[in-house]
Design goal:
Largest sheet: 7 strands, mixed
CATH class of the largest domain: Mainly Alpha
Shape: globular
Strand content: 15-25%
Number of domains: 3
Distance between the termini: 28 Å
Radius of gyration: 21 Å
CATH superfamily of the largest domain: Butyryl-CoA Dehydrogenase, subunit A, domain 3
CATH architecture of the largest domain: Up-down Bundle
Number of strands: 9
Length: 375
């Protein structure tokens, strides 16, 4: 595999980094978190102007035709600043569902609006009883004439309160945990029968519980055959948060090294303590390992061999989750009491990495799946 970045990818990396460096320090993040929806609409417009919101979409639909590695670079940069905007929910997850399942007419209608920042999507798939099972869906879809009617409830819908259009998974047949019998549907978030209960996760990001009661919807792709699409969208999400975790790990490591250089005890910086130097070096090695696995996940997103793709992305989720959790713990411990205060960034990186480890199945879940595959 070629792990070198192209000229265009390096330019993308530099452009995103410059934008976020100028506009997204920790104090700015704290201000954005206090806005009505918990993120900055001004920054969202800048993302659109830079082309980030259309990055993975075909050029004929207002996008730039970027691939999973381009998304990886963007997500890593967003992870460095713990960006609050709904990039994962709208562009990565919702956008992947539209790209993979949508008709030409649906893509032509919706993707240019997403790319311009005029339409926010949310991926409404998870349910309370599902745990981490990727195909557990109790929400039902029944057909009435040309319209589909949805009933059920979705949980932990990332940025579900901000979205104008929901991409909802619902069951047209089969048992609740079956891979077969799943459909994807487009729902107007303001439609009759949709109830949203927004809340903040422990890391400050936004989510919602959504109830659907007799809601009219239009099919996205072929109803009953969306299992493979659900898997691909989930894999895209895993690759994206793996890259975001690497960005957050690097930022936490930088804060920790700077703290070791400047915090003094007994008349000298604590970073002169060799044991603490060793722990910082181990944090660096863990971050480098996580970055390698995040790159592997990104390169596997478009792998045509489903078994190979699923196995490698699951391995990436296990290793990145494990290393991210360890680096986050070390960062807080090496800072001491200040590491858990609201006013200092490192504790917020700890929270974000904790949330990322749980998204799309935690490390234990994916490790168990890998073990079962080998049995």
């Amino acid at each position: 595999m070629d792990f070198d970045l192209s000229y265009e990818q390096r330019e993308l990396q530099d452009s995103v980094s410059r934008l976020l460096k100028d506009r997204y320090d920790f104090a700015a993040r704290q201000r954005y978190a206090k806005e009505a929806e918990g993120w900055s609409h001004e920054l969202w417009s800048h993302y659109a102007n830079l082309g980030l919101l259309g990055l993975p979409f075909p050029s004929e639909y207002g996008g730039f035709g970027g691939g999973a590695v381009d998304l990886m670079l963007t997500m890593e940069a967003l992870g460095r600043v713990m960006a609050l905007e709904p990039y994962l929910a709208s562009v990565v997850l919702g956008g992947a569902a539209l790209r993979l399942a949508g008709s030409s007419a649906q893509q032509a209608e919706l993707l240019p609006r997403v790319a311009a920042g005029a339409l926010l999507l949310a991926w409404a798939h998870g349910e309370r009883q599902a745990g981490h099972e990727p195909f557990f869906v109790a929400t039902t879809a029944r057909r009435e004439g040309r319209t589909w009617i949805l009933d059920g409830a979705k949980s932990l819908v990332l940025n579900g309160a901000s979205a104008q259009t929901l991409v909802v998974s619902a069951r047209t047949g089969g048992e609740t945990a079956d891979r077969d019998g799943l459909g994807l549907f487009l729902v107007d978030a303001g439609a009759q029968g949709v109830t949203r209960h927004p809340y903040r996760l422990v890391d400050g990001t936004s989510a919602a519980e959504i109830t659907l009661s007799g809601v009219a919807a239009s099919a996205l792709g072929e109803p009953g055959a969306a299992g493979p699409i659900v898997a691909r969208v989930t894999e895209s999400g895993i690759a994206a948060v793996a890259a975001e975790a690497v960005g957050a790990m690097r930022a936490a490591l930088d804060l920790t090294v700077e703290y070791l250089k400047t915090r003094e005890q007994f008349g000298r910086p604590i970073g002169q303590n060799q044991a603490l130097q060793h722990r910082a070096a181990e944090m660096l090695m863990a971050t480098e390992q996580a970055q390698s696995m995040a790159m592997l996940a990104a390169m596997m997103v478009d792998e045509p061999d489903a078994r190979e793709r699923e196995r490698n992305i699951a391995m990436a989720k296990v290793i990145v989750g494990r290393e991210a959790r360890w680096v986050a713990h070390q960062a807080v411990q090496l800072h001491g009491g200040i590491g858990v205060t609201e006013e200092y960034a490192v504790g917020h990186y700890f929270r974000r990495l904790t949330v990322i480890e749980q998204l799309f199945g935690d490390s234990s879940f994916h490790l168990r799946r890998l073990a079962e595959e080998q049995a």
